[in-house]
Amino acid sequence: MHPTYDLSTIGGVDHEVEVRRSRRRVRTVTAWREDGRTVVAIPARFTRAQEAEWVRRMLLRLATQERRRRPSDDELVSRAAELSARYLQGRAVPTSVRWSSNQGRRWGSCTPSDGSIRISDRVRGMPRWVLDYVLLHELTHLLHPGHGPEFWAELDAYPRTQRARGFLEGYSYREERGPQDPAPDDDDVEDTEDTEDTEDTEDTEDAERVEAHVGALEGAAADRPPAADGTDRDGTD
Description:
Number of helices: 6
Strand content: 15-25%
Structural class: alpha/beta
Distance between the termini: 31 Å
Radius of gyration: 20 Å
Number of strands: 8
C-alpha cells in the first residue's frame, strides 16, 4: 500500500499526492496524474525530508508543464503565427484561432473562405509538438483546402508530422477501446528510466508526466531544496 497524503497548496490548488518508493529507482524522480491524484515515484533511499522537497519540486514542474500544454485562445493565435512564419513562410494568415468544444472526432477544422481555425478541446494537455502539428495542419488548409500531394508536401517541413499523426491515432485507439489494465507497480518492473542520464525529459514525454535527474543521493546535490519557482538550481527546468 502506497502512502497517500494531502500536501500543502501548490499554485492555489490542493493536491492529493501518492508517493511510490522503488528500490530499483536510483537516479530519477517522476511525477504524473493518475485517477484524480498526483503520483510521485522516488528512490527508496530518500529520507522523509528529501521526499517532501522532491514532491513539492515535481508538483511545480508538473503544473508548469500543464500550463504550457493548455494555452489560451490568444496564445493559440500567437503560436499559429510563429508556426506559419517558421514552416509556411508566413503565407497562412488566419483571422482567428480558438479552442472549440464541438469538433466531434476531428482534431481541428478551418474555414478557408473566412480564415478561421478551430482546435478541438481534446487536444488540450497533449504534448506541445502535437498541438503544433494540429495547428500547422489547419494553417496548411488555408493554403490547400484538400489533402492532396501539395498539402502533405507543405507539412513535410515540420519534422514531427509523422510522430504527431501516430500519437493522435494511438490516442483515438485508446479512446475507442477504453481504459486497459493498470500500469504495474513501480517495484514490479525494471526501472529503465534510471539508465538514462537526462536531467529532465518533460519535453519528450508523450504522457502527462515529468521526470528529473537527482544525481548522487549522498551529499549536497541530493539534499539541497528546490528553487522557489520549482526549477533546478543548475539552470534546467
